[in-house]
Design brief:
This protein has 15 helices and 15 strands. About 40% of the residues lie in helices and about 20% in strands. The chain folds into two domains: about 180 residues, glycerate kinase, domain 1 (3-Layer(aba) Sandwich), CATH 3.40.1480.10; about 180 residues, Rossmann fold (3-Layer(aba) Sandwich), CATH 3.40.50.10180. By secondary structure, it is α/β, with parallel strands linked by helices.
Length: about 450
């Protein structure tokens, strides 16, 4: 197999993973309707029992998920509102779609969230609320707690993204300073019956972390949030109002997020309909079909992107040297989500940075290709899902006068790969289950 064939196969394998986590199919596989009976994970709901059916949603896949709900329930839906990232809308007949900012929340997201809250305020014990949650839901459901402004939340989000905090840590803070996250959306809907269909974009599929768990009991406290603030030295970065709010909460001055014994959760069913492992398994299956000795490394990959890249390239070298952990032609697939501590002023995302770091370490190796992409089709604030590289990438870059080390130090992977034609461009995929990495060795 030559390098061109490996590159083509890597893209094919990645796209097979995307197809497996299509949100429309994911909803329809889990939520079934026969006449007036809805079935979800062994529980049944009679449509005759409900006066109104409201649909709400937040996340990059929320509009696609809502289209599946319209297919299932049609005119039985009373009304609905979903918030999605700019460019992630799909045409809907009944449910309203609001496009808003991600990863930094904006005014449109705030107004869309207020519409969701107004809808929930209309609901009662005879109503059914279907909540559609996917990755990006935290930024797309902004409603600051009292004494905190949207600008405060924007500044905190930027500081958390730049310092290398994990999604678990970021969302722990988001929940405590929100009026709707950390189970508070379920409380707003109470005493309605709530069904939450969730597309996971977090390692471990922790329900209270995905989109900051708007319909799930919160496992974090104000004290946990203060520990995170201190860990990353955020008191200088975050707006004073946020720090004051958290410190006051630690002293008992603000109510904690709802915990498992809250009655709202007795009427709420939360179900994960898709996750990273589904994408990775499908990618692995495609690799086997293409003739590779393929294995799944892990879907729990996390940590600093550059360090994770070093581990992956070391595996490639081991395959070349000893045939472990897979004989050539080999395919190593991994999932999860790494983090980047921003130190430069460039443009890129964790997937592009992973591939750039990997390209440096596989320089000169023949028949090795590495691809990394975000399943949502966007990597950082760019129009690329990720990038692809091989053993000749660094040499080709030098021919164009590009210094890969300089671009890596400046966190400018996008502008490194763009002139090489090695960006992975998919456009919005309308799904989001973290990242998929494909490494081929022939």
């Amino acid at each position: 197999m030559n390098t061109d064939k490996l590159r083509s196969d890597a893209v094919t394998i990645f796209k097979a993973g995307l197809k497996a986590v299509d949100p429309v199919n994911a909803v329809k596989k889990k939520l079934k309707r026969e006449g007036n009976i809805l079935t979800l994970e062994g529980r049944t709901y009679s449509l005759k029992d409900y006066k109104n059916i409201y649909v709400i949603g937040m996340g990059k896949a929320a509009a696609s998920m809502a289209s599946a709900i319209e297919d299932i329930l049609g005119g039985r839906i009373t009304t609905g509102v979903v918030n999605v990232k700019y460019g992630h809308s799909v045409p809907l007949k009944i449910i309203k779609v609001n496009e808003a900012g991600h990863p930094i929340p904006d005014e449109k997201g705030l107004r869309g969230t207020q519409e969701i809250v107004e809808l929930l305020n209309k609901s009662g014990s005879e109503d059914l609320v279907i909540c559609l949650i996917s990755g990006g839901g935290s930024a797309l459901l902004p409603l600051p707690a009292a004494d905190i402004t949207l600008q405060d939340k924007q500044e905190l989000t930027s500081a958390l993204l730049n310092c290398g905090a994990t999604i678990h840590e970021i969302n722990a803070l988001r929940k405590q300073i929100s009026g709707v996250k950390g189970g508070r959306l379920a409380k707003l809907a109470y005493p309605s019956t709530v069904i939450s269909l969730i597309l996971s974009d977090v390692i471990g599929d922790n329900l209270d972390v995905i989109a900051s768990g708007p319909t799930v009991p919160d496992t974090h406290s104000f004290h946990d949030c203060l520990d995170i603030v201190n860990k990353y030295g955020l008191k200088q970065e975050a707006h004073g109002a946020v720090i004051d709010y958290i410190e006051k909460g630690c002293a008992g001055g603000h109510e904690e997020t709802p915990k498992p014994d809250d009655p709202a959760f007795e009427r709420t069913q939360n179900v994960i309909i898709g996750s990273n492992i589904g994408a990775v398994r499908a990618a692995n299956k495609k690799a086997l079909e293409l003739g590779y000795n393929s294995l799944i490394l892990s879907t729990f990959i996390h940590g600093e992107t550059e360090e994770v890249a070093k581990v992956h390239t070391a595996i490639a070298e081991e395959i070349i040297s000893s045939g472990n952990p897979a004989e050539k032609p080999a395919c190593i697939i991994s999932g999860g989500e790494t983090t980047v501590t921003i130190e430069g002023t460039g443009q890129g995302g964790r997937n592009q940075e992973f591939v750039l770091a990997a390209a440096i370490h596989i320089e000169g190796l023949k028949n090795v290709v590495i691809l990394s992409g975000g399943t949502d089709g966007t990597d950082g604030p760019t129009d690329a899902a990720g990038a692809i590289a091989d053993g000749d990438t660094v040499s080709r870059a030098h021919d164009l006068g590009l210094d890969p080390y300089a671009y890596l130090c400046d966190n400018d992977s996008y502008n490194f790969f763009k002139p090489l034609g090695d960006l992975l461009i998919t456009g919005p995929t309308h799904t989001n289950v973290m990242d998929v990495r494909v490494m081929l060795v022939s």
